[in-house]
Amino acid sequence: MADAVRMDVNLGGIHMRNPINTASGTFGNGRQFEGFYDVGATLGAITCKGVAAQPWQGNDAPRLAELPSAIMNSVGLQNPGVPAFVQTYGTYLQSVVDRGCAVICQVAGHSIDEYVRALELFEELAPFASGFELNISCPNIAKGGAAMGATPRDAAEVMRAVRPLTKRPIVVKMAPHDVAEIGRALEAEGADALSLINTIPGMAIDINTRRSRVARPTAGVSGPAIHAIAVRMVWECAQAVKIPLCGIGGVASGADAAEMILAGATAVSVGTANLTDPMAAKRVVEELEAWASQQGVSSIDELRGAFVC
Amino acid sequence: MSASGAKTNLHEFVVQENEQVAEGLWRMRCNTALAAELAPGQFVQVSVPADASHILRIPLSFARADARSGELDIVYAVVGEGTRRLSAMAVGQASTMVGPCGNGWWLPQDQGRALLVAGGVGLPPIFACASMLAQTGVGFDVVVGAQTASRHCVGYVDELRSMGIHEGCDCARKVVLTTDDGTLGMRGFVTQAMENLLAEHTYAQVYACGPNPMMAGVAKLSMSKDIACEVSLERMMGCGFGACSCCNVALVDGTQALCCTDGPVFDARRVQWQTR
Description:
The complex is a heterodimer. Chain A has one domain (9-61, 77-205, 223-303): Alpha-Beta Barrel (TIM Barrel). Chain A has 9 helices and 16 strands. By secondary structure, chain A is of the alpha/beta class. The longest helix of chain A is centred in the first third of the chain and has 17 residues, at 82-98. In chain A, strands 3-16-15-10-9-8-7-4 form an 8-stranded parallel beta sheet. Chain A has a 4-stranded antiparallel beta sheet with strand order 5-6-14-11, with no helix packed on it. Chain A is globular, with a radius of gyration of 18 Å. Chain A has helices spanning 39-42, 82-98, 112-125, 152-162, 179-188, 227-240, 254-263, 273-276, 280-293; strands at residues 9-11, 14-16, 20-22, 45-47, 64-67, 70-73, 102-107, 131-135, 170-173, 193-196, 200-202, 205-206, 211-212, 219-222, 245-248, 267-270. The mean pLDDT of chain A is 95. In chain A, helix 3 (112-125) packs parallel to helix 4 and helix 5 crosses helix 6. By secondary structure, chain B is an alpha/beta fold. Chain B has 5 helices and 16 strands. In chain B, the strands form 3 sheets. A 7-stranded antiparallel beta sheet of chain B has the order 4-3-7-1-2-6-5. Chain B has a 7-stranded mixed beta sheet with strand order 11-10-9-8-12-13-16, with helices on both faces. In chain B, helix 3 (154-162) links the parallel strand 9 (140-146) and strand 10. In chain B, 51% of the residues are buried. The model of chain B has no long low-confidence stretch (mean pLDDT 91). The interface between A and B is medium-sized, with 37 and 31 residues.
């Protein structure tokens, strides 16, 4: 048995006991998984569902379709608004932090003003938050979301507006395109870390009704089918920026997480796999540690970006 | 936390029987510790092994959960690849299910008679509801509808007929069968049979499960007579325990509930009855 490998990492000021995080929207707000395992005692971080200043009702049904090795969703960031979110989950999320797991609150908006208002409310009402994730990449809302982060200039503009509002770390959730250019623009405006990728916009058409299989024409594709694309984008982004990355996309095993780390990610989020196997994130922690201990390193950090090419 | 008070968790199950019980309908009897934790009307999220390209679990209701023997009877329609593979699971084969999921049926507010309405594969949770009412001594009538005679689960219908009689409570007074084509029982929809019963009897509570248009009709009829009505809804589901917000149900107050954790049993008056 090799000596224990140090698994703790620093995601732009968010200290994590191990690199495993959860992708926003796939983990509820953590509490939903406490019946399966002790979330706060197990994971490096959890990222909560995106929350805006005001409640959003999200998109119409159906919001979900199954695809080969993937799903597509069009939830549209249904959320209760920051005050109700804090009221419902604040005490629980503080208990997660108290157990040694970072809590990242995701900030949603339709416009720069809405991102500002949401982050102001979080800053005031959520002392438990270890950091924030700015979602400028949701493909499922008509205004804002992915449109806010579609170009380096747009992404930088949002970042510039929110940066002065908090001293806590801001991670920016990126859309699956132009990750090097947009990543550089966000880094220049003071982003502490980047998380990528959000779901990939796709379409699934019912050939009998000729309608979309979800309520909107397009929806976000996630799951094992997009993993290789996500690893490539993490690798591209890692070469473009110096700030740490959280790799997201089809991670369902320790091996998948290891690929992300080798490609340059500091942390790795488990997403869709949480829905299909509620034990997935815990299992990924264990499998990743087993892999790291076989690599002859003293810290998982030594494996970051160790991809050989 | 579920209606039964048990936390949603991951459980193993082993297939004991898996056989066709009517055209397009199968029954899997499996053994699982989860059987002791399920309340009538809740559901489970079943993982079907052997094909990694289908990643979602299948949300399934059950007809019977025996706490003592650990037997769980799941009746399901074979409608797609997932349920086709479920029907191919062999006796002795093991997999996992997540549960208990969601909220079960509520007992009637008073001890007045209940009317149970099942359409197609809506039968299992209605059967579980009937068992619950029989045990608590609440009287009820049942309407069971199917497209055609071959799609009726004769075994469950017989059990509904005899239910409670041996306990001397005369629980099931009437079991009315309907078929769309008239090949068994009354020709027509369950709502027509329901109208007939409503004209003859007074009911304190209606319980319904079936296709969405059927439940919309049952809900409308119940509301027009000011009878409390509970419906068990079905949605495409991601997790089954409130983590992904994919299984939304539009409510009349303009908000979106989640079928998995706010339901699947809803007060029919709260639901926006529009079908896409």
